[in-house]
Amino acid sequence: KMTSDEERNFRSNLAKGYGVASPLHKIRLFDESNEEKDIRVIFYRDSASWCPYCQKVWLALEEKRIPYRVEKINMRCYGEKPDFFKKLQPSGQIPVATIDGTT
Predict the structure, then answer these.
(1) Contact criterion met (CB below 8 Å) for 69 and 42
(2) Got the DSSP string for 6-51?
(3) Which of 6, 60, 89, 94 shows a CA-CA span of 20 to 30 A to 43?
């Protein structure tokens, strides 16, 4: 499979948490000035990336350039929520963000 330089660069940056915003990011560092150890926010969002409530939180994190980790959680229409998430958010609603482990 052939890929363009632009695609290879995008994929490389995606793995590092750099580059343009993408729902494919699992971590978001923005650039080399941040390291993975600097991440204090975990953003629990929909696995399909189309929930408008999650998009609002995502846009705020992006606009403020706050480093974050993404955990994707099924919306109810896609199946059950994981047990760890139900303990974190008993209602099961998303989005949820934790800062230093606190909601």
Answers:
(1) yes
(2) HHHHHHHHHHHTBSS--TT-SEE-BSTTS-GGG--EEEEEETTS--
(3) 6
How far apart, in whole angstroms, are the C-alpha atoms of residue 46 and residue 53? 9
d(CA 64, CA 51): 20
Q: Is 69 helix (H, G, I), strand (E, B) or coil?
A: strand
Residue 32 near residue 67, CB atoms below 8 Å? no
What the block records as the tokens of 2 is 């052939």
Cα end-to-end distance, the chain, whole Å: 43
Give residue-wise pLDDT tens across range 73-92: 988 777 788 999 999 999 99
Radius of gyration, CA atoms only, the chain: 15
Q: What is the pTM of this model?
A: 0.89
**What b/e readout covers 55-85, taking b as 16+ CB neighbours within 10 angstroms?**
eebbeebeeeebbbbbbebbbeeeeebeeeb
